[in-house]
Amino acid sequence: MLDEYSASDKVLLALDCIIFGFDKEELKILLIKRDFEPEKGKWSLIGGFLKKEENLDEAADRILNKLTGLKNVYLEQLHSYSKIDRDPVERTISVAYYALINIEEHNEKLIDQYGAKWFSISEAPGLIFDHDIMVKHAISRLRYKTSKEPVGFELLPPKFTMKQLQKLYESILCEKLDKRNFINKINAMDILVKLDEKDMSSSRKGSFLYQFDHDKYKRKKADGFDFKV
Amino acid sequence: MLDEYSASDKVLLALDCIIFGFDKEELKILLIKRDFEPEKGKWSLIGGFLKKEENLDEAADRILNKLTGLKNVYLEQLHSYSKIDRDPVERTISVAYYALINIEEHNEKLIDQYGAKWFSISEAPGLIFDHDIMVKHAISRLRYKTSKEPVGFELLPPKFTMKQLQKLYESILCEKLDKRNFINKINAMDILVKLDEKDMSSSRKGSFLYQFDHDKYKRKKADGFDFKV
DNA sequence: AATTTAAGTGTTAACTTTACACTTCAAATT
DNA sequence: AATTTGAAGTGTAAAGTTAACACTTAAATT
Q: Which ranges carry the Nudix hydrolase domain (chains A, B) (predicted)?
């Protein structure tokens, strides 16, 4: 019982953030080109270090904000990575978070400043350290999470068409979905509001816009309803 | 970009381990009565600190081993907890792991030495720090995991009856299952070996013993098969 | 030989999921 | 004004899965 406080080794605690966005067709992640050592010039996740006065969720918020300018974003802790030589400079444990953002809302200037760029998952470059494995885990968690909880909406603008929603799920799940079955399923859950407004950008007829009804979902959930795609 | 390595604050990295066992009827967790400060005399999870020469998985193995004497145990990282004042002595981040062990195999002497005791989930005492929330998360993860992967067998002896397996799932899922449906489902997956041996302890007729066939499962999984309870 | 007690076994109905193709609408063109 | 164009929008039936349910069998005990 004596490997207690005093005898222990403190470590640097880093955070890395997998930022997901969806640009009409594809799921993307936001990566930065490092302009600092180590691995200067290579692509990586945005990261930072935990500060004394914050917990991990707060640190993740701060790090996400410094790159995107966004606040109140969906962020979830993923996993902690601890391979001894994962960071060549110093022993560092990294806690990975993933974020879901509306890609239309990020701050372009900040992104340029960081040399950051959106990459579709399939075209992303190899990343430094263990960041590739973090991304792999994040995608797998995203698949699970979006099919069990209505968090996919975080990746869309507040008003969206059924087509957009379907494309989003297709790109997360990496499979084609049947249009009628998809719409029937979503409608059966009765958690969207159909607006009187149409998106006219994709067809002459236009397609109706919908909104996710957070309150209705909360009430249904309290009554035992389960979201499922 | 300059909140880099040098400016950062190192922290103590702890690990806490939720150890699950199953004693014929009930899911249990192994807790220790602390004989050291802070919170001496109170119940808590077994824990320890990360050392320089090990990664988190190795540290969790070591900590599990010091209490149970067991090696090669099913261990999975759960979540990292970081509330600023979660540990009153010093800023500490804790990474929680959960373990599934065959309750018959742990080392009684070690357990006595640590003042440790098995508690059924419903009768466990309140725990120190944020350990109660860790246990809650662990149970919820265990439910998910055991219904998607054949890890429940880790909680049973190598040879078990269908009844035992059903009781195990009932106690993890907190619901009664239909005997015929359960057995039909398990048999349909075709991942158990029925032995010529019976357990005679529970009835005159005796009930056949089964073993989980790891290799067969691996082969089926590679062919796209999914375990599901 | 009769009794006891848990083990072992299949079928049907309810529900969920999948497969599938034509009509409607509004703008653009003639 | 009529026709064309292209995506939006819509329902049903078959297949598959899950859930409900009760009697027979085996071996020990009396």
A: 12-145
- Integer angstrom CA distances of residue A42 from A14, A32, A81, A132, A136: 18, 8, 20, 13, 18
Task: Decide if A52 touches B, using CB distance below 8 A.
Answer: yes
The upper half-sphere exposure of residue A49, i.e. CA atoms within 13 Å in the direction of its Cβ, equals 19
Tell whether B105 lies on the interface with A, counting CB pairs under 8 A.
no
Going from N- to C-terminal start, the domains of chain B cover 5-148, 156-222
pLDDT of residue B4: 62
- Cβ of residue A140 near strand D, that is under 7 Å? no
Q: Mind listing the pLDDT tens digit for each residue in A178-195?
A: 999 999 999 999 999 999
Helix (H, G, I), strand (E, B) or coil at B27: strand
DSSP result, B100-136:
E--GGGS-HHHHHHTTEEEEEGGGPPP-STTHHHHHH
Domains A5-148 and A156-222 share a fold: no
Q: What CATH number is given for B156-222 in this structure?
A: 1.10.10.10
Please give the pLDDT value at position A153: 98
Q: Are strands B10-22 and B27-33 parallel, antiparallel or unpaired?
A: antiparallel
pLDDT of residue B6: 59
**Tokens 């410094």 found at:** A66
Does position A94 have pLDDT exceeding 80, yes or no? Answer: yes
Instruction: Nearest by CB to B8, from A7, A8, A49: name it.
Output: A49
Mean pLDDT across B149-166: 98
Query: Where does the pLDDT of residue A164 fall: very low under 50, low under 70, confident under 90, or very high at 90 and above?
Result: very high
Closest protein residue to D6 (Cα–C1'): A203
Interface A–B counts its CB contacts (< 8 A) at: 88
pLDDT at A9: 87
Average pLDDT, chain A: 96
pLDDT digits (tens, 9 = 90+) for B88-109: 999 999 999 999 999 999 989 9
Assigned CATH topology for domain B5-148: Nucleoside Triphosphate Pyrophosphohydrolase (3.90.79)
Statement: the CB of B218 is under 7 Å from strand D: no
| Nearest nucleotide over every DNA/RNA strand to the B205 CA, judged by C1' | D27
Higher pLDDT, residue A152 or A5 = A152
Q: Which residues contact A222 (CB under 8 A, 6 or more apart)?
A: none
Task: Tell me if A73 sits within 8 A of A64, measured CB to CB.
Answer: yes
So what's the pLDDT on residue A174? Answer: 97
Predicted local distance difference test score (pLDDT) of residue B53: 94
Task: Tell me the shortest Cα–Cα distance from B207 to chain A, in angstroms.
Answer: 38
Query: If we measure between CA atoms, which residue out of B81, B82, B96, B103 comes closest to residue B28?
Result: B103
